[in-house]
Amino acid sequence: EEINLCRNDGAVVPVLLSSSPLHLEGAESCIILTDLQKLKEAQKLLQKAHDELEQKVEQRTHELRRSKEITEQLIQYAPTGIYELTFFPLRFVNVNDVMCTYLGYTREELLRMNPMDLLDETSKKAFQERLQKIGRNAVPSTVEYVFRTKKGEVRHAELNVSFTYEKKKPV
Questions:
Q1: Nearest Cα to 88, choosing from 139, 142, 147, 135?
Q2: Looking at the DSSP assignment, which residues form a beta bridge with residue 15?
Q3: Contact (Cβ atoms closer than 8 angstroms) between residue 145 and residue 119
Q4: Theoretical Cys-Cys bridge with 145: which of 69, 76, 79, 123, CB 3.0 to 4.6 Å?
């Protein structure tokens, strides 16, 4: 049981009171008092650190959400076609309105497509060669491909590409 005791100097100290039967030289029980003051102080410090950390996490989460919103708006309303894709499996993850207009597909159609389906045969071959070089960081950032729009029109595009890596693998 946790109780408060008053010390000789008048300070109130939290203690843990425990007792158990003990048979020593005629004594029938033993009472143990454990000073909890340092434990309580440590708990307060720990709670304060926890609260400060929670506040920092909340603030940082808000900043990251805001940054993500701004980035998404910049991509969405950029005057050039922007897309994001994954390599494993190869598919579009995000495309902006200009890409949709340029290719004649809706966002939903493009997000269901394999990007290779848009390329002519020469560009498909070049893309495959680039995929092999990505793991070696040997890929030039600018490349030209020939695309086919939804209506079958041929479009030439110069792409400026950047890659994101995790554990030395493109993601």
A1: 135
A2: 3, 35
A3: yes
A4: 123
